[in-house]
Design a protein that fits this description.
By secondary structure, the chain is α/β, with parallel strands linked by helices. The chain is built from 19 helices and 26 strands. It binds ligand 6R9.
């Protein structure tokens, strides 16, 4: 990327004139910023790390890692040398281009070094959540045909090696006992050379496989290629609004696509200092991370924001949060109440962004310069054509609910579902469109409003009700910390609305409270949207990325099998 070219990207990031920006935009223009546009040789780890060293930014801090027991910083140069070493370790064991190499460990500097090292060899990285149990790990390693795994002594017991004949090498970060047929990360890193020529790849060569759960069947291996970096880089600039001196914190784990696209690639392609915080969530811990590291751009998820909101003012008021310049959210609908609260609590409107594992990067967003309508996901990125279509692929008029679909292609879209091309085809069942599986509508100003997953939409007495709308109203009630809403079969109404609710501290689960909450929704939203049944729970079932698993609520309710639970939080 040339310095003067980066300037011109910054200028187009002024989306104040959205229509004009859309007209002028071309992906090819963005591609030109990469040196590989001219020579055709590409490697994500080189673009994200080594290039900054080559261009004189080697001494800049790339990574600030901390958890309860340590805090370490790494410059771009240090990350270059460490990932070179790890690349050499892998090469010594015969690993190279196209091999699938998985990572199964908690966040730590070694995880990030390992991932970059994998990419340098041209292998395809597969990050897994540390919380996965034996079957979840096995399913993913088996389906991908992984040849190597990087893990820790604590997690090793969940790797059923006998059942995974293709898994040749296990590299352990931590203590290894001799005679165990394991590779010690520490030993081999010590003796490996820190010089390495990365594997030069084609832009359509592999980058990552992220496993994600559908509503049925086994998890799907979403396959991404090097070319995705065009969009990671560009959205980092336009949507995250990353600038040279930013301290950026994405709270997501690399086991989730947000933790790679926006926890690794977008910040480092833009040469920005990246904060990683290990350990468990607590409001105090997160706010003190922002305060200590002077975080300026913060990307998190609705569940976290709701929990921070639930913690009450007395918590955030103890911290100095004025380093923040831009706050963003992804993963689930961001309730209007949370947007309004964020404005009050942080002085910033939380900017919602919509995208999926399959899309590889953000597609519909609230840009820094845009007027936010609280509750809306925003507008399509320049270069992205989104629409609401009916089941035949015809666009529906504004304010009508339908399938949220994207005109193909875009740079970061998945290239296949690993081992399952027919699953991949299902996303393109309407010719010319990628069908997201979300239902939404577009208003007369071109803002998109999420309604639910297609299969979550409730039909009560002929009214189509998006569960999110009801959930958003519910959490405006002072007693409600979290809410999940499903349609429960009902002989007269087709379905009635049932709400599962976790209460905030200090509220008691009584019938009077149920009655009060019912009336609150009825009066605030509509009678047909009010939950006729309410059940209080200590906790709601959620994925690791914070999505309330309505299908689990439904399974509880109807006494059905809950399906694949490998991504559930606890
Ligand atoms: C990045 C990520 C994708 C699904 C998507 C939708 C939901 C994501 C959202 C949102 C409403 C938003 N989703 N962002 N719903 N508003 N801003 O989340 O990927 O884990 O694959 O989930 O998440 O239902 O289809 P992934």
């Amino acid at each position: 990327m040339q310095e003067e070219n980066m300037q011109s990207t910054v200028q187009t990031s002024n989306l104040g004139n959205y229509e004009e920006a859309r007209k002028q935009f071309s992906w090819e223009e963005v591609e030109r910023h990469f040196t590989w546009y001219a020579n055709g040789k590409v490697n994500m780890a080189h673009e994200a790390i080594d290039r900054h060293v080559d261009e004189g930014r080697g001494n800049k801090t790339a990574l600030i890692y901390s958890d309860a027991s340590r805090r370490e910083t790494f410059t771009f140069e240090e990350l270059k040398l460490l990932s070179n070493r790890f690349g050499n370790v892998l090469r010594q064991h015969g690993i190279g281009k196209g091999d699938r190499v998985f990572i199964f460990m908690p966040r730590s500097p070694e995880l990030y070094v390992a991932l970059l090292g994998i990419l340098k060899t041209g292998a395809i990285a597969g990050p897994l959540f540390e919380a996965f149990m034996e079957t979840a790990v096995k399913d993913r390693l088996e389906d991908s045909g992984a040849v190597a795994l990087i893990t820790t002594p604590q997690l090793l017991g969940r790797v059923s090696r006998e059942e995974l004949p293709e898994l040749k090498q296990i590299i352990v970060v931590g203590e290894v006992h001799s005679g165990e047929d394991l590779i010690s990360y520490d030993d081999e890193m010590r003796s490996a050379s820190d010089e390495l020529e990365p594997e030069w790849l084609d832009r359509e060569d592999g980058l990552l496989i992220h496993y994600t759960s559908g509503s049925t069947g086994k998890p799907k291996g979403v396959y991404h290629v090097q070319n995705a970096m065009i969009q990671h880089y560009y959205t980092g600039k336009m949507v995250l609004d990353l600038r040279e001196d930013d301290i950026y914190w994405c709270t997501a784990d690399p086991g989730w696509v947000t933790g790679t696209s926006y926890g690794i690639f977008a910040p480092w392609l833009n040469g920005v200092t990246n904060v990683v915080r290990g350990g468990r969530f607590s409001p105090q811990d997160w706010y003190s991370t922002i305060e200590r590291e002077n975080v300026s751009v913060w990307y998190s998820a609705p569940t976290a924001f709701r929990m921070l909101m639930g913690a009450g003012e007395q918590v955030h008021e103890q911290f100095r949060l004025d380093s923040l310049r831009h706050v963003l959210s992804v993963g689930e609908p961001l309730n209007p109440e949370v947007v309004r609260w964020g404005w009050k609590a942080y002085g910033h409107r939380i900017h919602d962004t919509w995208w999926m594992t399959e899309t590889g990067a953000q597609l519909i967003c609230n840009y820094p310069e845009m007027d936010i309508k609280p509750g809306s996901m925003g507008k399509p990125l320049p270069g992205i054509e989104a629409a609401i279509v009916d089941d035949h692929g015809q666009e529906v008029p504004p304010n009508h609910m339908g399938n949220l679909a994207i005109r193909t292609p875009w740079p970061s879209m998945m290239r296949t579902i690993w081992n399952n091309p027919s699953k991949y085809e299902e996303y393109f069942r309407l010719p010319g469109w990628y069908v997201s599986g979300d239902s939404a509508y577009m208003d007369e100003d071109g803002y998109f409003w999420f309604q639910g997953r297609i299969d979550d939409v409730i039909n009560s007495s002929g009214e189509r009700i998006g569960p999110f709308e009801v959930e958003s109203k519910l959490i405006e009630h002072p007693a409600v910390a979290e809410a999940g809403v499903i349609g429960k079969p009902d002989s007269t109404r087709g379905e009635i609305i049932k709400a599962f609710i976790a209460l905030r501290e200090g509220y008691e689960a009584t019938d009077e409270l149920k009655e009060e909450i019912y009336r609150f929704v009825k009066e605030g939203l509509s009678a047909h949207a009010a939950p006729r049944e309410i059940e209080f729970k200590d906790k709601l079932p959620k994925t690791r990325s914070g999505k309330i698993m309505r299908r689990v609520l439904k399974a509880w309710e109807l006494d059905l099998p809950a399906g694949d639970l490998s991504t559930i939080e606890d």
